[in-house]
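Page 42, continued from yesterday. The earlier attempt failed because a stray header line got pasted into the input along with the sequence. Redoing it now with the clean sequence only.
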Amino acid sequence: MTTINTKSEIIRNPGVEFQQERFCNLKINLSAVEDRCAEYAKRRSIKKENQAAWLLKVISLIDLTTLSGDDTIARVRRLCRKALNPINEKTKGLLNLDKVNISTAAVCVYHEMLSAASPILKGTGVHLAAVSTGFPAGLSPLPLRIEEIKYSVEAGADEIDIVISRRHVLEGNWQELYDEVKMFREACGDAHLKTILATGELGNLTNIAKASVVCMMAGADFIKTSTGKEPTNATLPVSLVMIRMIREYYESTGYMVGFKPAGGISDTKTALQFMTLMQEELGRRWLEPDLFRFGASSLLGDIERQLDHFTSGYYSAAYRHPLA
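This time it went through. Structure tokens are written below.
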């Protein structure tokens, strides 16, 4: 693969024409995928100073998320302030990071909470993302899902996390899936589109691979594993398949598409495995926030505890690192 400057701007994926021949013969070997993923758990290890540096990098890749039915304006505002100051001042001082601007990549909320988040995040560089299109099931009427996107963009969201219609994948209606995602992309305008595949509900890895390709062809800026509401969310095997599709799409079109694992990534060990996966499969350029995100909330608390341990030798209690 061509070497790419890690600071270089990427050309946004405009999508390409629907071409079923590009993916119709895809077959995924589950055993081979699982064997490859097992290597990451056994052989890759990041320790001490290197681990601290990688964990600081992880923070910059987090979409700090709250998608609960009991969300309140006060909670969302606190979450936004946490996104702007993710590490407590004492730990920053011990790590000599007093003058370093560290923040998460984005805050992700429901439409109703955009008005609470937007004034706090505006102009800070932290993106504001909204889940859309009938999240998490994606079963509301198509015109309403399109209007949802437009509403969120008007309310200040510059990233939209949409859910696809899983039935299109399960029934093999690939043209319908392409047309749907393309309409979502058009409704986003300048806001970036993350397409949530809800991989735990797509049946098998071959379906996941095909859905990934179709969404990228339709113009997705990111492909994302899960809503976080399914029984099975982000896993290494699913992620490896999606990442390989991203690599193939880049090599065939020249357009770089991002990846967002979401759901179930709550500890640093898992996060570092995903970082290693991205580094080895796609290269260093895919470890920047414009191409890689973690959909998480509790992950940040665990990172703080690990950094606290690095500076003091002791693990602090989780309640000392509240998120919101």
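Notes: The first strand starts at residue 62 and ends at 65.
Reminder to self: strip header lines before submitting.
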